[in-house]
Amino acid sequence: MKLSVLTASLLAASLFTHSSYVSAKIPFFGAEAGQKMPSLAPMLEKITPAVVNINVAGNREVRQRMPDAFQQFFDQGELRREQPFRGLGSGVIIDAKKGYVVTNAHVVNQADEIRVTLTDGRSFEAKKIGEDPASDVALLQINADNLTEIKISDSDNLRVGDFTIAIGNPFGLGQTVTSGMVSALGRGGLDSEKYEDFIQTDAAINSGNSGGALVNLRGELIGINTAIIGPAGGNVGIGFAIPSTMMKNLVSQIIEFGEVKRGILGVEGNDLNEDIAKAMKVKSTKGVFIGRVTPDSGSDKAGLRSGDVIVSLNGKTIQSMSELRAKVGSMGVGKSVKIGVLREDKQLSFDVKLSESDQANVTAGTMHEMLAGASFSNGKTQDGTAGVMLTEVAERSPAAQLGLQKGDVIIGVARTKVSNVAELRDILSKAKGVIALQVQRENAVYYVLIR
């Protein structure tokens, strides 16, 4: 049945008023009288404090199609207005010392207010460090003591049939635990524009579980719950989670740059099928058939050719283009990957350095509103001093009004040296009052004041 019929729906952060109760049981065996019953409770008592509830509020643009008779009075025949919204979701604490909380990008999208509530009842305002809508990952930060973090497992080691536990805040009921198993791996196709390499599970997932934890029986994080297939947004035993390894790669970039600097392999292709395999004389029906290699890309320089079939990435089997795209898309620019290839009847291996995508610059407006309109990247001055380079400055933007120009390199804030984007972000997040940026333009150094 097509997804359009079943309705493949991202788990909206909004609260629904109805639910259906679905359970999946892990097969424990009975105990003799007087013996302690097998239970997941001890493990869950340790990790559930790491799963939080998220409340969001803000305004979203609503578009209303106007009747033909009125379209001449409205832009493109639409009436646009701001409408307030509130919603609920879940999140996972991955770093207790720094207060980092991972959730879904769609949970906090366009939210002006984000509050994180812990299982002990404490509530904190959260700061959004960055988000990547293309993979549906967002990173928040709270300032709190005595937090519990969850250990992150290597999701690449998962197998179909492994037991899973989903923890979240379905329908705003409060923290809820459900169980099931890994139903499939490498799932995609819900949204062709996004990077999808989902873990499929039958552990009950519903609206409000978005951003919650999918864990194994050791209580280790294996995924971030993100989507379902089901009528009216309800659970029918088909839920999807972003693999923990993919999430970890994305979050490390958000921490360093404020957003994902996505690397690209530099190939275009299709899923390998039986017809293509016969035509190309390849003894496999799973993989990615390369139709074109982008000139001067990492793949081109490494020696990949059109007609090759990619069958593995860093030693792990690749079965589809969506899986390859998602895995590579979670890795940063400049990372080296090992690509396993079938070329006719030969098995070959290539080390490919990921090229820079068109979205490799950090948007400065996420650091400070007066820097809006500028894009940053790690760079160096003419004399080799490390700093933060302005790669773009939009005309008449706040950054341009400060006098900043493309090619300027920020080398400090007041008397504190800055050598990369991560350091600049950290300093600006703590700065109060007037901020003095130390900027080098060619051979001259000057200060820009931000009030």
Short structural description:
With 451 residues, the protein is mainly beta.
What can you see in these coordinates?
With 451 residues, the protein is mostly beta strands. The protein has helices at 3-6, 41-47, 105-108, 244-257, 274-280, 298-302, 321-329, 398-401, 421-430, and strands spanning 8-10, 51-65, 78-95, 100-103, 111-117, 123-125, 127-132, 137-141, 163-168, 176-187, 198-201, 213-215, 221-229, 239-243, 263-264, 267-271, 288-293, 309-313, 316-317, 336-343, 346-353, 355-356, 362-363, 374-380, 386-393, 409-413, 416-417, 435-441, 444-450. The chain is globular and about 70 Å long. The protein starts with a helix and ends with a strand.
Distance between the termini: 57 Å
Catalogue the unreliable spans.
1-25
Number of helices: 9
Strand content: 35-45%
Largest sheet: 7 strands, antiparallel
Q: What gyration radius follows from the Cα positions, in whole Å?
A: 24 Å
**What spatial form do the alpha-carbon principal axes imply?**
globular
Give the oligomer, counting copies of the same chain as homo and different chains as hetero: single chain
Structural class: mainly beta
Number of beta-strand segments: 29
Proportion of helical residues: 10-25%
* Chain-averaged pLDDT: 83
Query: How are the strands of the biggest sheet laid out side by side?
Result: 6-5-2-3-4-8-7
